[in-house]
Write a structure and sequence with these properties.
With about 230 residues, the chain is mostly beta strands. The chain folds into two domains: about 30-125, Jelly Rolls (Sandwich), CATH 2.60.120; about 130-225. The chain has one helix spanning about 1-15, and strands at about 30, 40-45, 50-60, 65-70, 75-80, 85-90, 95-100, 105-110, 115-125, 130-135, 140-145, 155-160, 170-180, 185-195, 200-205, 210-215, 215-220, 225. The strands form three sheets. A nine-stranded antiparallel sheet has the order 17-16-15-14-13-12-11-10-18, with no helix packed on it. A five-stranded mixed sheet has the order 1-3-8-5-6, with no helix packed on it. The longest helix has 16 residues, at about 1-15.
Length: about 230
């Protein structure tokens, strides 16, 4: 009887020293696929504190990717990593950019505090119409996803290359337009506008390139549209 009680006591002691481990939460990896004929998808989910939700999305070079992340407590952000593991965006809630290469992009969602319930919207579309402009110092390629002749379009990309240095920049922007007599309805396209931090790039339909820093005009070059 004493032996049985001694054995039971030893067992309880060992259990106390070696508690049964609780399975740790781990990162989750899933693939986003658009429905047939669609260019966007929305994911509703929650990420556990200390873990990441990793979404794979296959896309091609020169396509435009738009990502928007909203969360109930404003406590979710994402990183965007290219197929060659280059960090394109870090701890942001939205982005709109021209993709650099083909392959699987990673959208990595994490919480900034506690668990985070979120909606992730992703859109990818092709550049279908292309225009080329050459100024004194720049070769510019504009690509638009909207149909030709559209007065308004918020799916326009800008790729500008410095002829002298070879440096290039890629931006995403929209059309600018003149309104009709009612002051609201778009009547006539004037050109395109692209934001780059505190800089604003404007390309007019007559081929003039303007670059503003805030409200200050810092560059003006006249160009010629290329065939």
């Amino acid at each position: 009887m004493k032996f049985s009680r001694l054995f039971l006591g030893l067992c309880l002691l060992l259990v106390g020293l070696n508690p049964i481990p609780i399975e740790a939460q781990s990162d989750r990896t899933r693939r986003i696929q658009f429905d047939s004929g669609e260019i966007s998808s929305t994911v509703e989910d929650a990420v556990i504190r200390g873990t990441k939700d990793i979404y794979l999305l296959r896309a091609n070079k020169s396509q435009i990717m738009t990502i928007s992340l909203t969360s109930l407590e404003n406590n979710a952000v994402f990183d965007l990593v290219s197929p060659n593991n280059t960090l394109l965006k870090q701890e942001v809630t939205k982005t709109n950019l021209v993709l650099p290469i083909n392959g699987d992009y990673k959208i990595i969602v994490g919480g900034t505090r506690g668990n985070a319930t979120y909606n992730l919207y992703v859109e990818v579309y092709d550049n279908v119409r292309q225009q080329r402009l050459r100024t004194e110092n720049f070769n510019i390629v504009l690509r638009s996803h909207c149909f030709e002749g559209a007065v308004t379009c918020d799916r326009v990309s800008y790729e500008g290359t410095n002829i002298n240095t070879g440096d290039s920049i890629q931006l995403v922007g929209k059309t600018i337009f003149k309104t009709c007599a009612d002051g609201v309805t778009p009547c006539r396209s004037l050109g395109y506008e692209f934001l780059n931090g505190e800089y604003v790039y404007v390309v007019h339909n007559d081929g003039v390139l303007l670059v503003y820093q805030g409200e200050n005009l810092i560059l003006r070059e006249e160009g010629t549209w290329q065939d």
